[in-house]
Specification:
Blueprint: E1 4-8, H1 12-23, E2 28-32, H2 35-42, E3 49-53, H3 61-70, E4 76-81, H4 86-94, E5 99-102, H5 107-119, E6 132-134, E7 137-140, E8 145-148, E9 151-152, H6 157-167, E10 173-174, H7 176-184, H8 194-209, E11 217-220, E12 224-227
Parallel strand pairs: 1-2, 1-3, 3-4, 4-5
Antiparallel strand pairs: 6-7, 7-8, 8-9, 10-12, 11-12
């Protein structure tokens, strides 16, 4: 059965263009011309992925993504944005998007990102993922829960997955490309490694604010990051 993709954009010509590219790849397509229509369709029908324009009137793509993740929808989300700033891309990823694509884009890049997104339809965590304790830091994967001395820490899904990935292999040094490939399952040439730096910064800030007495992720200069279980480092 062909994989189903919902194309969401308030510009008809853009929906048609994207549809033309994806039809040639054999996907089954549906369209939505507004954020409200996208939410209505995505919460009532089954799709494997959604290609979501950010800049739409009234209900924009940010809100669509946020609403889908609140409902627990596992649909893969590829956001389209004309903004090139790292902060804007990170905002989409933090809201639960799986990848982003900056307009204008080449057909080959769109197809490559969609294929990567569809390869990874589920979370990198599974039912066998183990709980992790490091001092007063407690990580519970089945609930996407992080606590510091019993106090819950509000991490985004991607922040949690990055922290858990590193915590499961505390002796390993992860490059930014390693994290991209394992968390987003995206070919590294399609992703900006600087987004990883922003996620790491957010994780550190939130855990420190919650009272964690040590830095859980150390920087290995010129290489990447590694998980730290020792207080005082």
């Amino acid at each position: 059965m062909a994989e189903r993709i919902l194309i969401v954009d308030d510009e008809r010509k853009m929906r048609q263009l994207i549809g033309l590219y994806l039809t040639e790849e054999g996907y089954e397509l549906d369209e939505a011309s507004s954020g409200a229509e996208a939410i209505h369709k995505a919460t009532r029908q089954s799709y494997d992925a959604i290609i979501l324009d950010i800049m739409m009137p009234r209900t924009d793509g940010w809100e669509v993504c946020r609403r889908l993740r609140i409902t627990g929808s596992p649909i893969g989300v590829l956001i389209l944005t004309a903004k090139t700033e790292v902060e804007d891309r990170v905002k989409g990823l933090d809201l639960g998007a799986d990848d982003y694509l900056v307009k204008p884009f080449a057909p080959e890049e769109l197809i490559a990102r969609v294929k990567a997104l569809l390869r990874r339809k589920t979370s990198p965590l599974n039912e066998e993922s183990a709980e992790i304790t490091a001092g007063v830091l407690f990580i519970q994967p089945d609930r996407y829960s992080v606590k510091v001395a019993g106090q819950s820490v509000d991490l985004t899904a991607k922040e949690f997955e990055i922290l858990y990935l590193m915590a499961t292999h505390p002796e390993r040094v992860y490059t930014r490309e390693n994290v991209i490939e394992q968390i987003w399952a995206i070919d590294r040439e399609w992703q900006d490694p600087r987004t990883i730096d922003t996620h790491i910064k957010n994780i550190r800030t939130k855990l420190k604010k919650a009272g964690l007495p040590f830095n859980p992720i150390n920087t290995v200069w010129g290489v990447g990051y590694t998980f730290n279980t020792t207080e005082g480092k």
